[in-house]
Design goal:
The chain is α/β, with parallel strands linked by helices. The protein is built from six helices and five strands, in the order E-H-E-H-E-H-E-H-E-H-H. Helix 1 links the parallel strand 1 and strand 2. It binds 4'-phosphopantetheine. 4'-phosphopantetheine binds next to strand 1, helix 3 and helix 4.
């Protein structure tokens, strides 16, 4: 039984994330989607909302489950007995950001990181851009799984009132 962890902030989950998780599932028996905190980013959605939206996106997909990562990813990887971390690359900037994390996770947990190249048709989709488009009233429903657009618009609306 091979297990991969697909970690991320998922703030919010996008069609790009879904593509990467599906590709990971084609290589591993089980994929655990780890919804974590990136301390260099300020999240729009709380972790419970991010987990709920991700669970809805993968509902009915065999061999994929979604769990919150409460603390270090390296410890989560050990706890779920994962064989590898899988992350998606859209381009060189992603690699530059991911390489130090992959090296640190190997240092901490001895875990290898496997990079998968996502669908180029989805390469323009980033959670940060989805939020930015939503903040300015643009259309985001074709960038995210069903239900995510409503949650993002509601959160952006609350953000506007503060
Ligand atoms: O989607 P992101 O923001 O690129 O994902 C980054 C994330 C959340 C996977 C990373 O920040 C992370 O692993 N956070 C959990 C805390 C941790 O382990 N930090 C050290 C990373 S080497």
């Amino acid at each position: 039984m091979t297990i991969a962890v697909c970690p991320g902030s998922f703030d919010p989950i996008t069609l790009g994330h879904v593509d990467v998780v599906r590709r990971a599932r084609s290589m591993f028996d089980e994929v655990v989607v780890g919804v974590a905190t990136n301390s260099s980013k300020s999240a729009l959605l709380g972790v419970e909302a991010r987990v709920a939206l991700a669970r809805a996106a993968f509902e009915g997909i065999d061999g994929v489950r979604v769990e919150p990562v409460d603390g270090l990813l390296a410890e989560f990887v050990r706890a779920v007995r994962a064989n590898a971390v899988v992350k998606g690359l859209r381009g060189g900037a992603d690699f530059d950001a991911e390489l130090p994390m992959a090296l640190m996770n190997r240092h901490l947990a001895g875990v290898e990181t496997v990079f998968v190249v996502g669908d180029p048709a989805l390469a323009h989709i980033a959670s940060s851009l989805v939020k930015d488009v939503a903040r300015y009233g643009g259309a985001i429903d074709d960038l995210v799984p069903p239900g995510v657009g409503d949650a993002v618009r509601a959160a952006v609306g609350r953000e506007d009132r503060t």
